[in-house]
């Protein structure tokens, strides 16, 4: 980047630091005195059940400090003297449980380097011993009744807290009250003894919870002698009196006592008095009331004040009083404090050589602390030449020298404790020392703030500072430079300078301003079906230099989604989050975070999971009546798709137990439904909700609800009246469902009568749902009604329906049948309707039958093709499509009803006119020359009339298929199947169009593309070359099945190891397929996977140096599937073999004729060739076997002579002659196929 010093920006800053303000903070890179950073706060109580005890002492300094310890003021080595090992890099050590008693004492840690020594505060390690009561024999205490008793506990010392209990040996607590109570010292005091106080098992228990120990003192015995008079050695039963006695204090002794305690502790004052009657204690404070925080305990004998303050000191008085007198005791309470730093401990200082240094150590406390000083852990030694002066709590170093650098210890003590502080005093002069790494690189996102560090140590500091110019730039006191809203122009190098009287230093900082990270394609809110996969996308832009740090993180409701695992349903990939098999737990806010190590951008989307509604709850029945009930429910969660309706289902236990059926649908905003029920059923109900997602689960079923039996409330429906026979009437109906019976004993009453003739109904009672009425007149109208009933009554009055008795066949045929031929394939037929009386049933319509008798093109008869069309309704004309042109037909019409067809009308014979031919099946481009091309084609399968010739059109095209002017040639001979086009352009591409024509017109065109060649290239440029390639192949033939064709040949000796290729094309699709190379010595090739009954074009191709030339080309048609078995059966018959011999003889005759014709150089017509191949039908084959027969026919491909075929220098005339011969053979083979196709 460009060097950008702060001066060049006008922003120079000179760093000035001062150590006068605040504590001494010297970077560790600078040589400095030790400073203790971690030390154990005492005291440490070593409990035996704890595993170990740490004595911590850690310090910083440069050079690294070394450590030593003292115990009780004596130097020790933890390893040799205590058997423990110090930790590495510090002075700490750990004491493990064991012989702990040897470790008890006061410890102090010293951390030293060559500049000085720092000292820790004293750490007291207390190893408590197990508290025990001494074993002693205690004499019984004998007192008179009314006298005081003191039972001393004298509990052993131990780790607080300690609790004292007085109990019997049986662990029963000694009952305490105003007369008997335990003092704060643990003794049990009895103000005046009574006879009941006599017992031998007063036990004092001391419990130490920290060490989990309870100890008991030897049981003590108290004997209280009664004050009753004795007569004759026995107590008098008369009344007696305990002498009254004025109070005196058992605790405390004397009239006045002094109590000292520390601020914050609990004040405990106690007065326990003896006397009779039992004295009452009253507390007061001289000159003022008792503090509000004062509490009275132990039946008023103990005064406590928590967290005592200085204002709580003063004189407190307790007064014990009874009816005889009183006594008082005065407590002089003094609240004191241990030493505390005031306001804080002395701080380290960094001073310039020759300056005066004041080290002040102020502490407060009560009594006032005594201040003592040490240097590097040793007492001060002030000789005559010393520049040090100690003034009470301050040390003054006059004209400080480097050797005055040391750690000065200040100790403040009173009777409540000692505090110690270390003050590091360094007297040095140094040039500025840069502590921030030079050439530190900083990166910031454009528009954000950046702070570049410039940490420096300077002593002495420089008094001059310069501020930065510019609103976006500012310098902090620690030397850091802040740039607000950084821009791309801020990238570069920055220099920080620092100077003092000892020298100058500088560092360089490098700043790169990066493009911000921005989400450009945030995730979109999503409504997703439960059970499907949800997908959220998040695409972001970021600075390309941060590509290694860039990542996209997804979180759901603030919790980050971990990467994909086998158990996880979350899949994360390149900013996309997929949630597999979504359920309700997946709904929430999904946040995409695109982040680098500099910035991040977030975008959130709300995923709402849609699901079917939950089952309704609390389904209850109300308004229960005989045949109705009201159902109410509480809808379940609709899962973010409003409920559209509720469906009520029922189940009954009598007819179809366990099967639930729909009863009623209720709108989604309604939560009750009044249900109309059938009688004599035991119902239960359930409800489920439907929303836009689907149907939810059903609710729990209700309790059973049983309805009373009743008469049927409906009659049968869908009554069907039919006459299957002429003299009967079949009546059927849809029976009532079992649940609609409403009671037992269901049956039906069938009533009928002739319409308009009879008044009386004939009736039958039936239990089935069908009935046949016999001996009825043919096709007479009847009235019928059906009523249901059960053992509880009749159903409602039934509706009357009308029907007819049985039908019979029509007796008359349509008359006056006439036809009108509209075009070559469409016919209009008309007739006179038959009379209604002759129908003898419901009119169904009319059938038109037609039969193709023959083709007008061929005089021979063809197999009859029968067709018919049905025209429903009462009509007198119809249109008949799908006729064949140039044919003779016969047509009849008949009427029909439900019973069947009536007689046919008289037949009508008609002829269809001549039409245009079908498309020619194949058009090939052959023998391409420099200025000419030969076109070869086959006649159409169906001429639809008398073929008059062909229309050939062609035009010049280029690679983009742009068309030139259309040229036209009329081929007037119907027998012509090839044409030589001359006068074409050299190396030009043409599109050829050919259509066959009759007297009516020309049929659809077939297109083919071809190109002329240059004189130097002896090959065709057409996509499928068909020039005659001279090779010695003989006897080329084919065997055609339904799904395969076998091509066979005989190769000459010269061609035994040559290669050829077999190509074939489905003529409907127009796509060529070419085989792998086939060795000619194999003598055959099988093409399989063909479609039955389909026309294919087959070619043999030879590979030469210049081109793939067509050796042979033919059109074949596969047989119809399923008829091959007929061939196998027929071919074994003698007559069939004889017929095949005749066919072979005819074929040989054709070959001779072809050979003679070729040698003459002439052409023969298609008609002549057809005459040589009479139709199979004329040879006596019946309709059933026609088309099933298949034979291995020789293919009449061009067979060039060996002497000419092997020559390599033949001219174009030879090729043209050879092509001509191939054309003749090709057409002859096609004619044979054509005849077979007609048979099919």
Main sheet summary: 6 strands, mixed
Overall shape: elongated
Rg from alpha-carbon coordinates: 63 Å
Structural class: mainly beta
Residues in helix, %:
under 10%
Q: Strand fraction band?
A: 35-45%
Helix count from the secondary structure assignment: 7
Distance, first to last CA: 90 Å
Mean pLDDT: 82
Which spans of ≥5 residues are poorly predicted at pLDDT below 50?
1-22, 1016-1031, 1104-1108, 1122-1139, 1153-1240
Quaternary = single chain
Number of strands: 95
Domain Fibronectin type-III: 615-710, 715-808, 813-915, 916-1020
GO cellular component, one term: axon
Membrane topology: Single-pass type I membrane protein
InterPro entries: FN3_dom (IPR003961), FN3_sf (IPR036116), Ig-like_dom (IPR007110), Ig-like_dom_sf (IPR036179), Ig-like_fold (IPR013783), Ig_I-set (IPR013098), Ig_sub (IPR003599), Ig_sub2 (IPR003598)
